[in-house]
Write a structure and sequence with these properties.
The protein is α/β, with parallel strands linked by helices. It has 9 helices and 12 strands. Bound molecules: NADP nicotinamide-adenine-dinucleotide phosphate. The site of NADP nicotinamide-adenine-dinucleotide phosphate has 25 residues, from helix 5 and helix 8.
Length: about 270
């Protein structure tokens, strides 16, 4: 019988997860399908009930349910409990197990390039759900410290509390306070949604240089203004689509127990770039 997988969230119509998972199923000849299912805020419990009623094999969780979903799990893995959010769930006859592949999915492209995180200084733009998994990733890899710059300072403060709790030095500033300080950091990560609508870069890129690693987790467009300008300045660039593919590949492995055809997923995402 065909196994069904899904991504739940709201909005969900822009999600590229069905494209990449379905391309992998086709390539591997798996009798599986992956759908996008809109579950509005406040309707998670009903959404889960309907997923169970169609005997969903597994599902991804995105905005706004990553944290609330934790309450509905029967068990959770270590990354999931440290981060306090889940993005990947398995269903074993109604028993739901949660995983978080965002953190390792974020780290994979850095490791692939053999860039050293240990003792590095990090500038993280944004303090939302994705930023939380990123803080956990830098803490795990023993970065020296992390400056969290966010439009809303209270949210940056809350993320600093989380960083301290998991053992990494951190401080909060507003995004305007970054000014020309980018060159003081080895890693500059954009985890705000600035760039999605082709906006100007979230910070000044003047001091970004060939020693900087600039990682923009916004994946659409692939070349955000931050990426374009940092590339001109000679920085090492990591694209948001790389994180998207890595977290998807890790979810695929959890569900199917096999490695994903990465190039197939990449082609489905980028159209053969
Ligand atoms: N590549 C991947 O695999 C991957 C994975 C997850 C997420 N993402 C992308 O990462 C981005 C953030 O996702 P999320 O889940 O963390 O979302 P979120 O929880 O809604 O957080 C959004 C963040 O962006 C900031 N922000 C939004 N609009 C802004 C503006 N106009 N000016 C300044 N700051 C602004 C918010 O600041 P305030 O706190 O001030 O509102 C907050 O820090 C999204 O674009 C998402 O698509 C990519």
């Amino acid at each position: 019988m065909t196994k069904t997988y899904a991504v739940i969230g709201d909005p969900i119509d822009h999600s590229l997860s069905p494209n990449i998972h379905n391309a992998a199923f086709k390539e591997l000849g798996l009798d599986c399908t992956y759908i996008a299912y809109r579950v509005p805020k406040g309707e998670l419990e009903a959404g889960i009930k309907s997923l169970k009623s169609i005997n969903i094999a597994g599902f991804n969780v995105t905005i706004p349910h990553k944290i609330e979903m934790i309450k509905h799990l029967d068990s959770l893995d270590e990354d999931c409990s440290v981060i306090g959010a889940t993005n990947t769930v398995t269903n074993d006859n109604g028993k739901l197990s949660g995983y978080n592949t965002d953190m390792e999915g974020f780290l994979d492209p850095i490791k692939k390039r053999e860039l050293a995180i240990k003792d590095s200084k990090v500038l993280l733009l944004g303090a939302g759900g994705a930023a939380r998994a990123i803080v956990a990733g830098f803490a795990k890899e023993k970065a020296h410290n992390i400056t969290i710059a966010n439009r809303t300072k209270e949210k940056a403060n809350a993320l600093v509390q989380f960083a301290h709790k998991i053992g990494i030095e951190a401080k909060a500033i507003t995004i305007n306070e970054v000014a020309e300080s980018a060159s003081e950091y080895s890693f500059i990560v954009n985890a705000t949604s600035i760039g999605l609508k082709n906006e100007p870069a979230p910070i000044s890129t003047k001091s970004i240089n060939e020693k900087s690693v600039v990682y923009d987790i916004v994946y659409m467009p692939m070349n955000t203004e931050l990426i374009k300008q940092s590339k001109k300045n000679g920085a090492t660039i990591i694209y948001g689509y790389e994180m998207l593919l890595s977290q998807a590949a890790r979810a695929f492995k959890i569900w199917h127990g096999i490695d994903v055809p990465y190039e197939t997923m990449k082609k489905a995402l980028l159209g053969g770039v």
